[in-house]
Amino acid sequence: MSAAVYLGSIVLANILVHSLGIVTVFGLTFPAGAIAVGLTFSTRDVVQERYGKYGCWSWMLVAIVITCVFNRQLAIASVCAFVLSEFSDWVIYTYASGNAERRLVLSNLISTPIDSVIFVLLAFGPVWPAIWGQAIVKMASSMLLLPMYKNGRLRTFRFGLQRS
Fold first, then answer.
1. How far apart are the first and last CA of the chain?
2. Alpha carbons 47 and 9: distance in angstroms, whole number
3. Measured at the alpha carbon of residue 5, what is the angle toward residues 48 and 125, in degrees to the nearest 5?
4. Which of 43, 112, 11 minimizes the C-alpha distance to 120?
5. The pTM is what?
6. Which of 9, 4, 22 minimizes the C-alpha distance to 119?
7. What is the DSSP string of 54-73?
């Protein structure tokens, strides 16, 4: 399940940025895919917990292939940003001390701005409002999973009817 969510966020991000480009929402400018890309940083950490610190690289390679299916210029920017930011996310999450939740936040704090600078510069040029906006949106969206994250796993919630 974690790998599917991870890869799905990559696909969604590519579709959004390819179709909408740079958007401005509530005064914040960012590439449209930034919302979904933020999820990739947290879900990549979950994938690492599930498949191991080296096993997650196979899923990261699949994500690179998926990205290359979309717009060539966006794919080059995406792959460059992806390789550097995902590698930094992996290094920090793997070697930082503390529980899984602390490592997730720390790795995202560093890797999301790296991704934002590289991607926007290569895809759109030096559009600084989009770089800052993307970093903010990615960090915020990467934290969406934190309430469901416990001991390196995503908690699942089951809803059902209770008999009286």
1. 33
2. 13
3. 90
4. 112
5. 0.77
6. 22
7. TTHHHHHHHHHHHHHHS-HH
How far apart are the C-alpha atoms of 65 and 71, rounded to whole Å? 12
- Tokens standing for residue 64: 């690179």
Residue 81 in tokens: 């940003």
**What backbone phi and psi angles, to 5 degrees, belong to 94?**
-70, -45
pLDDT tens, per residue, the chain with 164 residues: 778 888 898 889 889 998 999 999 999 999 998 888 878 877 887 888 888 878 888 888 888 888 888 778 888 998 899 889 989 989 999 999 988 888 888 998 999 999 999 999 999 999 999 999 999 998 888 887 777 766 556 555 454 555 54
